[in-house]
Specification:
Helix content is about 70%, strand content about 0%. The chain is an all-alpha fold. Strands 1-2 form a two-stranded antiparallel ribbon. Helix 2 runs antiparallel to helix 8, helix 4 packs antiparallel against helix 5 and helix 7 runs parallel beside helix 9.
């Protein structure tokens, strides 16, 4: 491996994480994180844009995400460390210039942390809404904050316990959602094609829906942020990430096809619970319970993925003093980065409380900014892989991106262009917020991080993470 220049400082003072997650646990983190946001949050707005072609938008977003995930997979094979894109961008861009590598790492850390801490708050409110359906006497304004605190507490217990609980919930939601998709499709197998106007807003509407759908795929990195808590990370991390994404893309496409088969697209677009509307049309009574079970497990695991990913991302930055160092401390008993987890949980709780108080528009804008962050990070990681192939051709990862011309991954270039192109369909206000946040992160780097950064090179990381 190419070893960058170290600052020769101690690298063991923050504590060691525990390798408690096997392949199934990692897969469940990925599936759980991916499903909760997309299926229950964006179907309504997406069908308003794409109409009966909703499943096509899911398919396009899925193909771009899978192509990008292959870049993540190769990068993870090289550097299976906590923080995922934080580590990948640092080691990929540093050979060009040390400031570029560190700034790209801080961009990834900041974008991921903010978007997922806020997204967790929105998802918590969704959980509370479906919980209220089963237990009408319990108000969502009470349940949502309790859920936020409870999941933060679960993460503090330890990664093994978190992984097992998350696995059970993920399996339940996958079974329930596949059942929903199959039931709605069999109700009317040719449903989307029976409408006189398959593309009511043209391909522009499909691409606008594709941009929105990224909210359901932006946790694609959640698995990889757990690089130092995974067993056999160079094998299991990339495999779990790609298999989770493929599982969810198939599920998204089937569900997108099924809901339009079961209900009119205009009714779905106007509904506050479009998936419930579709299933209730086919299975009155029973369908509502099935939806509630799927929604509770999906939104719960989505919050776990959000908080895990964002806390591990900020932990990775804090370990190098790129952000305040206390956030990089690990509890010696639970092997959990307590301060980073609590800090992320507090941000998510604050967003949850904003949601329960009716600041829906603010949350909607925050979700839009999170979608901007997702597409930008996908594009950056594809670029990172291309830079690695050019600047560090000697690396021999366990997985290598297929279809190469003179060592350049052609499909990664396609995925990068597609990711940046989809950014043009983001609404102006979220786009402005996202760009402003990048400017603030850049200013923070030069004002705070640059002087304090204690760079951990690849030799340091190998020493820290060895079993």
């Amino acid at each position: 491996m190419n070893l960058q220049t170290s600052t020769n400082h101690p690298v063991t003072g923050t504590g060691k994480l525990s390798r408690g997650l096997g392949f199934v646990d990692l897969w469940s983190v990925g599936v759980g994180a991916l499903i909760g946001g997309g299926i229950f949050t964006v179907i309504g707005p997406a069908v308003a844009q794409a109409g009966p072609a909703l499943f096509v938008a899911f398919l396009i977003a899925g193909v771009i995400a899978i192509l990008s995930s292959l870049s993540y997979k190769e990068l993870a094979s090289n550097w299976p460390y906590e923080g995922a894109s934080y580590a990948y961008s640092k080691f990929a861009f540093t050979p060009i210039h040390k400031d570029l590598g560190r700034l790209m790492a801080l961009w990834c850390s900041g974008l991921y942390f903010l978007s997922f801490a806020f997204a967790a708050g929105a998802v918590n409110l969704g959980f509370a809404g479906y919980f209220n359906f089963l237990f009408p006497s319990l108000s969502p304004t009470l349940v949502a904050p309790v859920v936020s605190i409870a999941i933060t507490g679960l993460l503090l217990i330890g990664i093994k316990t978190t992984g097992k609980v998350n696995t059970i919930f993920s399996i339940i939601q996958v079974i329930a959602l596949f059942a929903i998709a199959i039931i709605t499709i069999f109700h009317n197998p040719t449903g989307p094609f029976m409408h006189s106007d398959f593309l009511p807003n043209g391909w522009t509407g499909v691409f606008a829906a594709t941009a929105l759908i990224a909210f359901g795929q932006m946790q694609v990195e959640a698995v990889l942020t757990l690089g130092e808590e995974a067993k056999k990370p160079r094998r299991n991390l990339p495999l779990a990430q790609v298999s989770a994404l493929v599982t969810v893309v198939v599920l998204y496409c089937l569900t997108g096809f099924g809901v339009v088969s079961a209900a009119d697209p205009s009714a779905l677009a106007a509904s506050t619970a479009p998936l419930s509307l579709a299933v209730e049309t086919v299975l009155p009574g029973v369908g509502a319970v099935l939806i509630a079970i799927a929604a509770l497990t999906a939104t719960g695991t989505s919050t776990v993925g959000c908080l895990l990913g964002s806390s591990r991302m900020i932990f990775a930055a804090a370990r190098e003093k790129a952000v305040p160092g206390f956030l990089g401390k690990v509890n010696p008993k639970t092997h959990v980065p307590v301060a980073a987890t609590v800090f992320t949980g507090i941000i998510a709780l604050g967003t949850t409380l904003m949601s329960t108080m009716g600041y829906g528009q603010a949350i909607s804008i925050a979700v839009g900014a999170a979608v901007f962050a997702n597409w930008l990070m996908m594009g950056l990681m594809n670029i990172a892989l291309i830079v690695v192939r050019v600047k560090q051709p000697h690396l021999k990862p366990l997985f290598r991106y297929p279809v190469n011309i003179k060592n350049i991954p052609v499909l990664a270039i396609v995925a990068a262009i597609a990711s940046f192109w989809i950014l043009t369909y983001i609404q102006p206000i979220p786009l402005l917020i996202g760009i402003s946040w990048l400017v603030l992160i850049t200013a923070f780097y030069f004002i705070y991080s640059r002087k304090r950064w204690e760079y951990l090179d690849e030799r340091d990381m190998e020493y820290i993470t060895k079993d």
